[in-house]
Design brief:
With about 220 residues, this protein is α/β, with parallel strands linked by helices. Helix 5 links the parallel strand 8 and strand 9. The longest helix is centred in the middle third of the chain and has 18 residues.
Length: about 220
C-alpha cells in the first residue's frame, strides 16, 4: 500500500488524447468517482471537438474512494502514504498527456472538494505554465502552520478559486491563503466567494469552467 493510487484506472471521454489539442483533468472528491466528475465535461459543453477529458480514480480508503483519509487541514503525515501517492498519480497523468503531444500549457485541471485541494496542491508543487486550474471548493493542503515555500512560477496560469463563505469543509481563510500562494507563484487569480452557498458548485462556476475550457 505504499502507492495505493498508482494502479487505479483513468476514465477518458471526448477526443482521443492522441488527436487532442488540449486536455482537461477532472479530479473527483471524497466518496465520489471518476465517472461522476466527468459529468462536468458534459454540463460545461464547450462546443469543442478537440479536447480530451481525463478523470483518474482514487483508491478505496475505508468506506469509499478517497485521495487521502483525513481532512486536508490535518498534519501531512496523517494522510500518508495516500497523499503522496495521489500527487504522484496526477503528475504521472500530466506527463502522459505531455508524452502524447499535448503541452502542459494546454492542460486544465478541474477539481471539486478533495479533488480541488489535491489539484491546488499539485499545481503549487509543480509550478509551470498550465492551461488553467479551476479549484471548486478547495485549497492547498496542510495545517495552518504549514510552510508554503513552493518554488518556480506559474507564469500567468489562470487560476479560478470558487467557494462558499460557509463551506463546512473548506475554511474561508484557506481559500484566501491559496489565492495568496498562487499570486506569489505568478498566476492570474480569479477568486469568488459566494454567500451562503454551502458545499456545491453553482451556475456561475460552471460558466467559468466553460470559459476556461473554450480558452484552451
Amino acid at each position: 500500500m505504499s502507492d495505493p493510487h498508482a494502479s487505479q484506472p483513468v476514465l477518458a471521454a471526448g477526443t482521443p488524447l492522441s488527436e487532442a489539442t488540449g486536455a482537461v483533468i477532472f479530479v473527483h472528491g471524497r466518496g465520489a468517482s471518476a465517472r461522476s466528475i466527468l459529468t462536468l465535461a458534459q454540463e460545461a459543453n464547450p462546443s469543442r471537438d478537440d479536447l480530451a477529458y481525463l478523470a483518474p480514480q482514487a483508491a478505496v480508503i475505508g468506506y469509499g474512494p478517497s485521495w487521502y483519509p483525513y481532512s486536508f487541514l490535518a498534519p501531512r503525515a496523517q494522510n500518508e502514504p495516500y497523499l503522496t501517492s495521489a500527487l504522484n498519480r496526477l503528475d504521472a497523468l500530466v506527463r502522459d498527456i505531455e508524452d502524447a503531444g499535448v503541452p502542459r500549457a494546454q492542460v486544465l485541471l478541474v477539481g471539486f472538494s478533495q479533488g480541488a485541494c489535491l489539484s491546488s496542491e499539485y499545481v503549487a508543487q509543480h509550478a509551470q505554465r498550465y492551461g488553467g486550474l479551476c479549484a471548486l471548493s478547495g485549497g492547498v493542503i496542510g495545517p495552518p502552520d504549514a510552510p508554503r515555500d513552493y518554488a518556480g512560477t506559474l507564469d500567468g496560469t489562470p487560476v479560478f478559486l470558487g467557494c462558499s463563505d460557509i463551506d463546512p469543509h473548506i475554511p474561508l481563510g484557506r481559500v484566501q491563503e491559496t489565492a495568496e500562494v498562487m499570486r506569489r507563484l505568478e498566476a492570474t487569480v480569479d477568486k469568488r466567494i459566494y454567500a451562503g452557498m454551502g458545499h456545491t458548485v453553482n451556475a456561475e462556476e460552471m460558466d467559468v469552467l466553460r470559459q476556461r475550457m473554450k480558452a484552451l
